[in-house]
Myb/SANT-like domain-containing protein (Stylosanthes scabra), 96 residues
Amino acid sequence: MEGRSQPNPKQIKRQWTSYEDAKLVECLVELVTTSWKCDNRTFKSGYARQLEKMICERIPECDIKASPHIESRVKLLKKHYCAIVEMVGAAGSGFG
């Protein structure tokens, strides 16, 4: 392996399963209903660690960590959600 370095573990992307995604969304909904949401429509500090605990209770064998796994996945889901809301909003104005 001359000239090749080992990949940085931080560069290896984690692949989420649809089951893990479903459990993450389930936990996010639970956080919203249990006062982890602030008045400015964001989560309180420490929400990712709380999600980690909740997911580990539901999927004991998982290796999902608050940082970077949950934080980056929530960021991606938020991005997708905003894009969908934008498209649905545009649908009323002739998009489609």
About this structure: The mean pLDDT is 85. The two ends are 52 Å apart (CA to CA).
